[in-house]
Amino acid sequence: MMVGREVTELYPRSSRQAGEVVLELEDLAGAEKPESASLELRRGEVVGIAGLVGAGRTEMLRSLFGLEPVRKGKIRLGVYTGPASPMRRWMQGAGFLSEDRKEEGLALSLSVADNVTLSKLKGLGPLGLVLPRRQDKATGRWIRELGIRCGGPREPVSSLSGGNQQRVALARLLQHDVDVLLLDEPTRGIDVAAKAMIYKLIDRLATGSPEEDRGPKAILMVSSYLPELMGICDRVAVMCRGRLGRMHRIDEVDEHRLMLEATGEETKI
Could you give the CA distance from residue 89 to residue 48 in angstroms, rounded to a whole number? Predict the structure, then answer.
């Protein structure tokens, strides 16, 4: 009743076609965690990372995006190899959604428009200037498309609900038009209706939209909520004590198997 649809329809899954590899990690190790992480992410698929809190999942994404140091291992993002700063990652086509929305994901003192366009100001005015009219127009598109409930582009993000704040954070990735989305707990702390919208958005991004001339994206998603990983991902791997396990097709595993891997019990069977 809260989301206006049957529970079985909460996790949409359109027909997806995995394309070329756009992200490759080989034995990636951070300052403390992860200890070892290897995976391939293809365009047109959603790959989930499960595991317990503290297993190293967030550290893996942060190391990949340049927010934490890389101790060893190989990173290939498109045609680029090696570690890079967050600014470089934006330029290389990767966007990161932090699990800490209030402290890292948004600038709460700024407006919706400022948050949406902050990472990509090009085209919003001549000679490096930002024209409010162009900024509002660019932001208005995402307000409509993502259903952000606000008083307009100039409303402070701090006055929005948690679900709408999360939509603003996602809108920044879409405004930047990244090819690889790194999502850390994208539905944490938001209501069921907002979760349903984000699941639909993730499915649409992975599938692509020919009518909007938008190709499929590649999505790497960390979540502590196993039902949503099982519901929207194409493949899933489990991080346990800093080590990323082997990748499974989603039809090969169930929540029980993933939990056994997350606690390290699967290896004892």
Answer: 20
Sign (positive/negative) of CA torsion 30, 33, 36, 37?
negative
Query: 184 and 234 share a domain?
Result: yes
Report the alpha-carbon distance of residue 83 to residue 135 in Å, rounded: 32
Q: What is the pTM of this model?
A: 0.92
User: How many structural domains compose the chain?
Assistant: 2
Q: What is the C-alpha separation between 68 and 85, in angstroms, rounded?
A: 9
Task: Give me the CATH number covering residue 203.
Answer: 3.40.50.300
255 contact partners, CB below 8 Å, separation of at least 6: 226, 227, 230
234 assigned to some structural domain: yes
Give the C-alpha separation, 110 to 185, whole Å: 23
Query: 210-248, pLDDT tens digit by residue?
Result: 666 678 999 999 999 999 999 999 999 999 999 999 999
* Nearest CA among 238, 239, 231 for reference residue 258: 238
